[in-house]
Write a structure and sequence with these properties.
The protein is an alpha/beta fold. Helix content is about 45%, strand content about 15%. It has a single domain, classed as TIM Barrel (Alpha-Beta Barrel), CATH 3.20.20. Helix 4 packs across helix 6 and helix 8 crosses helix 9.
Length: about 260
């Protein structure tokens, strides 16, 4: 319970609204008029984690969105291909999980924009070679969403996608993690989890219970693109809070 309260308080403190004027090329969930939720998984494909996760999702008939890094897509194309063939959406997570918050301390915006474009294209090539399709969604590592980056991504044909809640970079038990995820299942939510990395067993172990809980509560699972289509049809503003960079953020946080 103590962990639940602490993480919840920290999450609220770190949430901020993104100005409506930023761009049509940004999405982070919306206040839906029906019970829909999108599961998203970052940093993969992860050996062991992704294959097991795909089995769980298939057994429940749930489609998710995977934001994969180009380097891992090139190393393990069979996992990315399998996810796509099973109906999951594949998004771009840059080449090697580059942290643009850290890069901004050493480089000008002009240099960063060039690095971003190169990263996106390099990862895109690996992903398209694995799946046969060009990804159109981009999730920046650590949720980087400066206006220039969103604009640059949009010029490359991408929509930048963030999330409404995520917490699996914190050390916690499966019970603590599951409770927090359940608490943040709301209409139009985009939930962030990770299948990449060697310490995500808790995440994968919790997915079945999270799905069961949401389905029992009457929720349908959609991919991010499907949710974006629902938003367009509903005609509402993207007004859910966006998770921005966290103070002291490092490689283990908010991927």
């Amino acid at each position: 319970m103590r962990m639940r309260v602490l993480v919840a308080v920290l999450s609220v403190a770190l949430l901020t609204l993104l100005p409506d004027s930023i761009s049509a090329g940004f999405f982070s969930g919306f206040r839906a008029n029906r019970k829909v939720v999108a599961l998203t998984f970052d940093d993969g494909p992860g050996i062991g984690n992704t294959a097991r996760l795909l089995g769980i999702l298939k057994s429940y008939g749930v489609k998710a969105t995977f934001f994969v890094t180009g380097s891992l897509a090139m190393a393990h194309p069979q996992l990315v291909r399998k996810a796509a063939e099973e109906g999951h959406e594949i998004g771009n997570h840059l080449w090697n999980h580059e942290n643009f918050y850290a890069l901004s301390k050493k480089h000008s915006q002009e240099n960063m924009e060039k690095m971003l474009r190169d990263n996106v294209r390099r990862a895109e090539k690996a992903i398209s070679e694995a799946t046969g399709s060009v990804p159109r969604l981009l999730r920046m590592p650590h949720g980087y969403c400066r206006k220039w980056a969103v604009r640059a991504a949009e010029e490359l044909g991408y929509t930048v996608v963030n999330w409404t809640f995520g917490c699996d970079w914190n050390k916690m038990t499966i019970q603590e993690f599951t409770i927090l995820m359940k608490d943040n299942i709301k209409p139009g939510a985009v939930l962030l989890m990770h299948d990449g990395g060697s310490k995500k067993r808790v995440t994968v172990d919790a997915v079945a219970e999270i799905i069961t809980y949401a389905k029992t509560a009457g929720y349908d699972f959609v991919t991010v693109s499907e949710m974006m289509e629902l938003e367009a049809g509903q005609g509402v503003q993207k007004d859910l809070p966006v998770l921005r960079k966290q103070k002291g953020q490092n490689e283990g946080a908010a991927r």
